[in-house]
Request: fold
Amino acid sequence: MTTTDLVVRDLGRMPYTEALALQRDLQRRVVEARGVPPDEPRTMYLLLVEHDPPVITISRRRDARSHMVATDRQLAEAGVDVAETDRGGDITYHGPGQLVVYPIVDLSTLGLRVQGYMRLLEAVVIESLAQWGIEGNRDEAATGVWVNGSKICAMGVRLSRWVSMHGLALNVTTNLDHFELIVPCGLTGRTVTSMQQELGSACPTLDQVKQGMIRGFRSTLLPGRALPSPRR
Reply:
């Protein structure tokens, strides 16, 4: 019987391109692990990171680049980089104070397809927010998690042979002004929010939110299993 291990890595603050390279390497390892004997454990990965320097990522979707509002000068003044990405979705922002979670998991092992996996990610975020008294919701018209009509968590993934990379970005104490540089996720007229904006001084620390998110993924991906402490 095949067993599965979950390795959690807290990357601290890391540039987007470095985290992307790490994701690709781990995704390749998970794909290649399908060739191991069935009695050997297979490994999934959960990466937690804040992207620094701040960065706007633009997908390959046809109209994604048109949702950049800022000029090159405005980006430079704000200290925000721009990077192309191979995830799904549109355009979004990553920066300090935002918890980005990259699960590198084999969807076939979990018995999931893309839509089921996206609903799983949303469920983990909604449960994590509930720990702090925030009621997160789904929007039938837009992937992600919403609070009172404002997006608090963006999502986008990419699969290779049903192994995931990329994932979710939860605004904890994020500088929301930087979202004014873009049309977030290409959704005109929709606003963004953060845990800090919703809770004020009662907002948890990023480390506290990390632990809640890890618990959520542990119970979802490895129900009934103990999870080692995250390592850098």
Summary: Residues 4-221 form a domain with the BirA Bifunctional Protein; domain 2 fold (CATH 3.30.930.10). The CA atoms of residues 25 and 147 lie 34 Å apart. The helical segments are 16-32, 72-78, 107-110, 114-130, 195-199, 206-221. The two ends are 30 Å apart (CA to CA).
